[in-house]
Design a protein that fits this description.
The chain is α+β, with helices and mostly antiparallel strands and about 140 residues long. The strands form 3 sheets. Strands 1-4-3-2 form a 4-stranded mixed beta sheet, with helices on one face. It has 2 helices and 10 strands, in the order βαββββββαβββ. The two termini are about 25 Å apart. Strand 9 and strand 10 form a beta hairpin. The chain has 2 domains: about 50 residues, 2,3-Dihydroxybiphenyl 1,2-Dioxygenase, domain 1, CATH 3.10.180; about 80 residues, 2,3-Dihydroxybiphenyl 1,2-Dioxygenase, domain 1.
């Protein structure tokens, strides 16, 4: 990985956030305090800060006939890992904003994507490219 990113974001509850990011998404917990916790988010540093008054439902934009939350974050996984995660999320009855599906099938930039919320309502997108060299393809 060239340069891992750092993202700080608000949450309603530290314990439910720790459970979700650790048990559901498989992130390791780093440093923590009563009001924040760091996660190894697929090699990147996420810092969840207890700040419920900062949480608001994000606005949406139409993309491919679906309502995509404008404010969201996530990670691009290898194709097989994305498939495994999507199956796990379906198995545990995750409520998806956008259910797992493949965009641009058979075209340049073919990608799998899914959107869902963490326990605080932060929108997450996990995606994967059939050909990882096409992440920035036009």
């Amino acid at each position: 990985m060239e340069s891992p990113f750092h993202l700080a974001f608000p949450v309603k509850n530290i314990e439910s956030t720790k459970f979700f990011y650790k048990e559901v998404l498989g992130c390791k917990i780093g440093r923590e305090d009563k009001k924040w916790v760091d996660f190894n988010f697929f090699g990147h540093q996420l810092s969840a800060h207890l700040k419920p008054d900062e949480l608001k439902k994000t606005k949406e934009n139409p993309v491919d006939g679906k309502s995509v939350p404008v404010r969201h974050f996530g990670v691009i996984l290898p194709w097989e890992k994305w498939q495994l995660l999507s199956k796990k999320l379906i198995k545990i009855n995750t409520e998806f904003i956008i259910e797992p599906y493949v965009r641009f099938e058979g075209e340049v930039g073919e990608q799998a994507t899914m959107f869902f919320l963490d326990p605080s309502g932060n929108a997450l997108e996990f995606k994967s490219f059939k050909d990882s060299s096409q992440v920035f393809a036009k």
